[in-house]
Design goal:
Bound molecules: 4-amino-1,4-dioxobutan-2-aminium adenosine-5'-monophosphate, magnesium ion
Largest sheet: 9 strands, mixed
Radius of gyration: 27 Å
Mean pLDDT: 95
Low-confidence stretches: none
Structural class: alpha+beta
Helix content: 40-55%
């Protein structure tokens, strides 16, 4: 018994695999089965001449997702994914699957998400979940190697960390005791940092935003390190080291997965360069096209993108018309027709995406040009800004008015706080939010009053400033955002096994 990932160890030997039929093709004397076993995909060939008539007929009856145990000879074949092929000598069918709802055709997203429990088996989803798994592992490695203690913040909590508008309220406690699902473990992480020095939490967070965007979930996971005696600069240094570390690791260990996802290598080729750091004020100037970066203007770049989209769109439409023309004429063989049809479907998808870009880019340019200094950056603004870069950027020194109550103000410029957002490049946007925390009792007390937060719930948090307060800082990395960024997934719902967002509680 072996797994597909380990096939190379059995080259020219006979071994047994257990899995499911991902795909099947039949010719007169051969049945080609693409077997998947969770560890990978491998082509298994059933030959009438070796297996005999009865078995061959049995193999022909296999349907997509039927479960089988296959024994055969492992032969090197460079053309195969994974580099090996199995020449079947024996097989056992466990179940012939009913007609499987997900085929190789294009399916609508709603259909796929309603079938998430099955969609997880598809190759791309498989690759994304494996990247998620590796990322989780390497995140723990990074912090554990550096002496950080992993600690757990409660999920049920009486206080709001990131503002009160996005809270999930529960009714479990007494009437006068509101209980919420946690938006962030940070405040508890701060308490733990004063006990252990350097800590991190890695837990679920909940935000009750009643809107659906490609980058928001209502239930997501966050990694939140918190370090005593760290200031904002040390915080930024750690973030940069951390992001470089995890991305380099995924690049090294998830080669097959990245290939399956057709993730281009621009990110990996550039990740070891320094991450540009800029203040919020500079970022706004760049966004509005008032300040250039290495001779490049953000708005001009977007105009260029728009022109390119229009050119590509015209070319794709022409190609589509040509292929549809051939199909309409008829008189072509089934194989060729199927191939053309799949190309037509693919082109239609690409055209839809390009048309969406053609509609969106002018809106983004408009939003960037009219951006009001002092406001928060929206998704569109982050897109325009990060389009200029091939590495993440760190935007720090934010207006206090738009950031959380716990961020420390600049001593010499108290309208600004020592917060930092890390924006992933090539249009992706925010993956990290962090800050140096307010460590002075009176200033923090005032901020809680100013934000109209219930003082009673924050008394314990204020204790941290009563008993041995020190400068400290931390950040939160959105786990699904990171999986999405690295895998190149178009929507955050593909980065968690069973996504939860407004309107989606099934399956
Ligand atoms: O910027 P945020 O709100 O920061 C905090 O919660 C701080 N308490 C973190 C800290 O300093 N310890 O959230 C941090 C990150 C965001 O940058 C984003 O990547 C992710 O969490 N995030 C979400 N991911 C998916 N869906 C959502 N609704 C998210 N909201 C935030
Ligand atoms: Mg944020």
């Amino acid at each position: 018994m072996t797994s597909i990932r380990e096939l190379s160890k059995h080259e020219d030997g006979v071994t047994t695999l257990q899995g499911w039929v991902a795909n099947k093709r039949t010719s007169k004397t051969l049945v080609f089965i693409v077997l998947r076993d969770g560890s990978g995909f491998a082509q298994c060939v059933v030959d009438l001449n070796t297996i005999g008539e009865d078995n061959f007929e049995k193999a022909k009856r296999l349907t997509q997702e039927s479960s089988v145990t296959i024994t055969g000879k492992v032969v090197k074949d460079e053309r195969q994914i994974g580099g090996y092929e199995v020449q079947v000598t024996d097989f056992e069918i466990h179940q012939i699957a009913e007609e499987y709802p997900i085929s190789n055709k294009e399916h609508g997203v709603d259909f796929l998400i309603n079938n998430r429990h099955l969609w997880l088996r598809s190759k791309k989803q498989w690759a994304i979940m494996r990247i998620r798994n590796r990322l989780k592992y390497v995140i723990h490695t990074f912090f554990q190697e550096r002496g950080f203690i992993q600690t757990d913040a409660p999920i049920l909590t009486g206080n709001a960390c990131e503002g009160t508008t996005e809270l999930f309220e529960t009714e479990f406690y007494k009437k006068d005791q509101a209980a919420f699902l946690s938006q962030s473990g940070q405040l508890y992480g701060e308490a733990a940092a004063f006990a252990h020095g350097k800590i991190y939490t890695f837990g679920p967070c909940f935000r009750a935003e009643k809107s659906v965007t490609p980058r928001h979930l209502s239930e997501f996971w966050m990694i939140e390190p918190e370090m005593a005696y760290y200031n904002i600069e040390m915080n930024m240094d750690l973030i940069e080291e951390f992001i470089k570390y995890i991305i380099n690791d995924v690049h090294k260990t998830c080669e097959t997965e990245l290939q399956v996802l057709e993730r281009d290598s621009v990110l990996f080729d550039n990740i070891n360069k320094p991450f540009p750091r800029m203040t919020y004020d500079d970022a706004v100037s760049i966004l509005k096209g008032e300040k250039e970066v290495d001779g490049r203007n953000a708005l001009a770049l977007m105009e260029g993108d728009l022109a390119q989209v229009k050119t590509d769109l015209a070319a794709k439409k022409e190609e589509l018309a040509e292929k549809e023309g051939i199909l309409a004429k008829g008189g072509i063989k089934k194989g060729k027709r199927n191939y053309l049809q799949s190309q037509v479907d693919k082109l239609k998808g690409e055209i839809k995406n390009l048309e969406e870009m053609e509609r969106n880019i002018p809106k983004w340019i408009e939003s960037a040009r009219n951006f009001k200094r002092g406001e928060d950056l929206g998704a569109a603004d982050e897109r325009v800004l990060t389009r200029l870069y091939k590495t993440p950027i760190m935007v720090y020194k934010w207006p206090a008015a738009i950031k959380a109550f716990y961020m420390k103000r600049y001593e010499d410029d108290p309208d600004y706080v020592k917060g930092v957002d890390v924006l992933a490049p090539e249009g992706f946007g925010e993956v990290v939010g962090g800050a140096e925390r307010e460590d002075d009792f009176d200033t923090l007390h005032k901020a809680i009053v100013h934000h109209e937060l219930p003082m009673k719930e924050f008394e314990w948090y204020l204790d941290l400033r009563r008993y041995g307060s020190v400068p400290h800082a931390g950040f939160g990395l959105g786990f699904e955002r990171t999986v999405m960024w690295l895998s190149g997934a178009k929507h955050i719902r593909e980065t968690i096994p069973f996504p939860r967002y407004y309107g989606r509680l099934f399956p």
